[in-house]
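U., I forgot to send this yesterday:
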Amino acid sequence: MKIKIILFLILNFTLCQNGSALEYYLEGEYEKLNNNFDLALFNFYKALKLDSNSVIILNQIANCHQMNQDTTNARYFYTKAFYKSNYSLENGLEILDYLESIADNKNSRMVLDTLLKYYPLNIDLKYKSLRYLYLNKEYDELINEYKDIYLLDRDNKEIIPKLTDIGIALNKKKYLEKTLLTISSLDSVNIQPLLALAGLKIGEENYEDAISYIDKAYKISKEGSVLIDLIDLVYNLKMKNLVEKYLYIYEKNHGKSLSVQYLKLEFAINDKQYFYALKLIKELIISGEVGVDVLDKLILVTNELNDIDIAEKILVNQYLKDTKNIVFPLLLGEIGIIKNDRNQALEWYLKCLDIDKKNVNIKHIIANLSESLFKYELSDSIFKNILKNDSTDASGLNNYAYSLCERPNPDLKFALELSQKAIKLQPGNAAFLDTIGWIYYKLGNYNLAHKYILQSANLDNKSEIILYHLAEVYLKLNNKSKALNIFLEILELNPKNEIALKKIKELSYE
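Result:
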C-alpha cells in the first residue's frame, strides 16, 4: 500500500524539476501521512528552497500550516500557490474554501474576483459570488448574478423561484421585473419567468398584466395546468367572460380532464349552483372518482339541497361494491349524524371499527355516540379499551370522566380520578377544566367547582356548556346576579338557547 502511495506522490510531483527537491518533497509527504506536520514542513521548506516555483510544494506547505491552525502562514502560502499556478481554477477553489472557513471575507472576495476575470462563465464561482454580493448589499448585482446563473443552467427549475423570492425579500421588485423580462426575452421557450412576472403583477393587483403573462405562458407551453391556474385566477376576479373563454380553450385542447371537472365543481359550489354541482359529482363518481374529496362534496351538496338521501344511496352502493374501504361507512356515519339518526350512525361507525380495529379516532366517536344513546355497556367497553391501550390518552380520560358524571347513577369517585389524570396531562385545556369542575359540582364542592369552571370559561368564553355550568355554580353559591349575567351571555351567543331563556325568566321573577 505504501509503495502505491509513494508512486502516486511521485506522479503528482511531475512539475518539480529538481531531483533533490523531489527527495525532500517525498520525505515531507511521508511525515504528513503520519500526521507529523512539523517534520513535514521542515522537509517541504527544504524542497521549496530548491524549487521555489512549485505550486505543489506551496500547497503542501499551506496545508500543513492549516493542519497546525497557523492561519497566517496557511493563507500566505495558499495565496502564493494560487498566483504561481497562473490563476488555476483548482487552486483558486481550494484557497477560496480555506479563506471562507476562516471567515476571511476580504481576501476571499479578492481571490474570487480574480478567478471570475479568468473564468467568467464558471457557475460554481458565480454561486460563490452570491454570498459576497449579499453581504455587501449589492442587491442589483445579486439579482443580475442569478440571471447569469440561470442563463448558464437553464434546465435548473429552482433558480427562477429563488431569484423571485430574493428579489421580493430585498424589496427590489422593479429591478426583479426588469431582470425577469430580460430572461424571458433571452429564453423565449421557458415559461418560468413569465409565471414569475404574473405572480409579481398579482401581488401588485395588476391583474390585466398577470392574465397576459399567464396567457402567453400557456401559448408557449400548451400545458393544461397553466390554463387551469389562469381559469382559477379569472374566476376569483369574477371575470365571467374570461372564465368561459378559457374553459372553452381548455376543453378544446385538453378535453374534459379531471382537473377541469374538479375546477368546475369548485366553482359550482362557490356559486351555490348545487344542482349543477351534483351533476358534476355524479359524473366524477361514474368515471371512478370516489375519493374523500368528491364524496365530502356530495354530502355537502345534497345537504344544501335538503336531499341527503341521494348521498346516502350513492354511498351505500359504493360500500356494497367495496366493503373493506373504511371511507364509505365513515361518511355514512356522518350522514347519520346529519339526519339526527344516531343509532344508524353508530351502526356505520361500528362497521368502520370492524375494518380498522385499532383506529383510536373511531373508538372515540363510538364511545361518545353510544354514551349519548344510553348504551353504557358499549360505551364503557370502548372507553376502557382506549385507556388500556394508552393510559395517557387525555381526551379518553376526560370524555369518560364526563360521561360517568352525567349518567343517572354516576360513579363520581372514579370520574374524579379519571379527570384528575386528564388535567395532569393537559392542565390548560378548557374542556378538561370544565369536566373536573362539573364533577366537583356534582360532589357538592361548589368552591372547587367555581375555581375550575371559572378557569375554563376564561379560556373559552364562547362555549354554551361551560357558561351554563358556571351559571349553575353561581346559583349554588347564592350569587344570582352573576348567574343571571352568565345566562344573558349564553343568550347573546345563541338567542334560541331554551335553557338560558327559561333560567332568565325564573331569575327575573324571583
